[in-house]
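Encoded backbone
================
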Amino acid sequence: MPQAAQVLKAKIHADRMNIGLSDAERKEISNRLSEILVDTYRLLIKTHIYHWNVVGPLFHSLHILTEEQYNTLFEATDIIAERIRALGHHAPVLAGKSIDTSIELKASGQSALEMVKDLIADHEEAVRKMREIGTMADEKGDLVTADMLTDRLTFHEKALWMLRATISD
């Protein structure tokens, strides 16, 4: 039994990789992807809670739209976390960072319009951050991360289009 316990014991080690990115570059990219991972979870939870609590004439369309969006956001968390792991780090890498992991939820008493405007602001923030980090990854030669973030940007920009179209006059 002691042998089995040793085999199952987690081992922390620094992977030595020769993938065209330095250890420092992989760490920096992983740290920034961890920020995106936290933001994605925050938006996932907010979207899901708004999905449950939206009321009014836009109920059905927003209920369906937010369900599609939170499902896509959930899938994205796995993609982002696995990219961090592929870079040789644990996900999320938040040690020593002052990243706000709190989620402020004001669903109670909010109108559908207020919920959508709140989601728009979060998606816009995600787009700005992903564009910045994707550009940085591309400049460092991390084409996989840049490509992944391009895909994520595509989702968020489409989500913005859908949300804006839902509340336009």
Summary: The domain at 20-167 is CATH 1.20.1260.10 (Ferritin). The two ends are 68 Å apart (CA to CA). The chain has five helices and no strands. The helical segments are 2-8, 23-53, 59-86, 112-139, 143-167.
